[in-house]
Amino acid sequence: MFRKFTILSMTTMFLMSMFTIPVLASSSETPAIKQQQKMVNIAHRGASGHAPENTIAAFDKAFEMKADYIEIDVQQTRDGRLVVIHDTTIDRTTNGTGSVSDYTLEELRQLDAGTWFGKDFIGEQIPTFEEILDRYRGKIGILIELKSPELYPGVEEKVIDALIERNMHRPNNQKVIIQSFNHESVKKSKELVPNIPHGVLTDSSWADVTDEQLAEFAAYADFYNPNMNIVTHELVERVQDKGLKMYPYTVRTQEQADNLFELGVDGIITDFPEYVYKHPVKK
């Protein structure tokens, strides 16, 4: 009798362990998984670690990698057309020289915006803002940066007109966001389309931003997006206490992404969407 009882007990314990061990392992992973699910993944100028920035190749790659947003930079040509390029000059990312505003759209479209990155991208063009909206709306979020809007009077209205034409001025789930380092431009844009979330960008000189300044931003913005080098746990808490969200820029290493995870930011702007983990890329 005792021997049968012992064998039965051992069998029962073995069967229970088969179910309890996986449960314990799963439980230990829960916090990390939850954090990954909440983190917003923003592909900086597209997946610009994998393809030339602000080109269709980079934006397509970001979509393929399941980023939540593509971040784009909008400027204006000599003939008043909206184009997507980061620098106010074309020297770094094309085979041309001079200011964006010195060229017509037709002239800019003749330039090669991909060869500088690699031979696989020969012939990539500078895209128009409308081209990006038409290609990606409803497929991936679009974070629009008004780049140096002080150089292009009225650019806010042009950007918004393009959104309204496509019925994108009433975004669902914040899938369109407008931001700029020019905070007066952000104010102006927010007044024109209050339904669209807006963000203020700040560089490292804002390391000592005050609560009063954050409160001022919160009066017209929904996001405070700083250079990642000034982000601390205390700053994240202060920003979120004001009702703002924070998407720091620009992550280029796994270590940088992990640090921002630990600091509790709401999203990460990165050249490498795979570092943000929300949608891990299969190896």
Please provide a written account of the structure:
With 283 residues, this protein is α/β, with parallel strands linked by helices. It folds into two domains: 1-38; 40-276, Alpha-Beta Barrel (TIM Barrel). The protein has nine helices and eight strands. It has helices spanning 2-38, 56-64, 105-108, 129-136, 155-165, 183-192, 211-218, 233-241, 254-263; strands at residues 40-44, 69-76, 82-84, 141-146, 176-180, 198-202, 223-226, 267-270. β1, α2 and β2 (69-76) form a beta-alpha-beta unit. It is globular and about 50 Å long. The chain starts with a helix and ends in a 13-residue tail after the last strand.
Present the secondary structure layout.
Elements: H1 2-38, E1 40-44, H2 56-64, E2 69-76, E3 82-84, H3 105-108, H4 129-136, E4 141-146, H5 155-165, E5 176-180, H6 183-192, E6 198-202, H7 211-218, E7 223-226, H8 233-241, H9 254-263, E8 267-270
